[in-house]
Amino acid sequence: MDEQQLNRYNRDRLESRQIDELMGLASGLVADGVINEEEVRFLHGWLASNMSISKHPLLSGLFDRVQEILSDGVVDEQERKDLFWALRNFSAEDREGGEAVKSSTLPLCDPLPVLSFEGKRYCFTGTFNYGQRKHCEKAAAERGAVAGSLTKKTDVLVIGVYATESWKHSSFGNKILKAVDMRSTGVPISIVSEPHWVSHL
User: Fold this and answer.
1) Model pLDDT for residues 35-75, shown as the tens digit of each residue
2) 99 pLDDT more than 60
3) Torsion angle (degrees, nearest 10) of CA 157, 56, 11, 167
């Protein structure tokens, strides 16, 4: 392994560790059901001192939201509620006791797009209530879509309700990170949840 590869590997490991730490922080912050001003300021400080991930396309919205909340020096109740839900969606902490880890909803398109199938390219990631990935791909293909791996030609990434053990982070993996990064550079990819996809079948 040359020095450039080693640097890239070490940077990836550090960013992964920071993202996992942020997921733990988010879970802790929402555990009691509320966010207070001190917690908002703590989160802002953490994000500011971990800028390498704070500017990642998946997380930049969270960082921008915290910046905006603190911009006027007042953290009102609605801002705290909005941040609570953003952190809960990021950490996927909306499961019942004993339920499998759910996928993060943070990367989903907002507003959600109207989906079509004919001539569109779909990619699936996660664990689905609908069935195995091959069943999801078949359902898309039966409606005129092509299903396969994630590329710049992919029109829609569908995220299963539940996380997959092989994902890099507990509630999202590399496909989701890559799709969010592609979207941030202007690639017209929609990122939707399994229930939204099912509603269009």
Assistant:
1) 999 999 999 999 999 887 777 777 888 888 899 999 999 99
2) no
3) -30
3-state secondary structure of 163: coil
Which spans in 37-173 are helix H? Answer: 37-49, 51-54, 57-71, 77-91, 133-142
**What's the whole-model pTM score?**
0.71
Pair 79, 69: CB distance under 8 Å:
yes
Residue 133 falls inside a structural domain:
yes
pLDDT at position 1 = 65
Give Cα 115 to chain centroid, integer Å: 19
> Tokens at residue 86, please?
């953003």
Residue 88: pLDDT over 70? yes
Query: Taking a C-beta distance cutoff of 8 angstroms, is the pair 66, 44 a contact?
Result: yes
User: Do residues 77 and 155 share a domain?
Assistant: no
Tokens of 129: 């209530």
Distance from the Cα of residue 101 to its chain's centroid: 13
Q: Domain span at residue 155? A: 121-198
What dihedral angle (degrees, nearest 10) is formed by the CA atoms of 48, 51, 53, 56? 110
Task: Give the 3-state secondary structure of residue 125.
Answer: strand
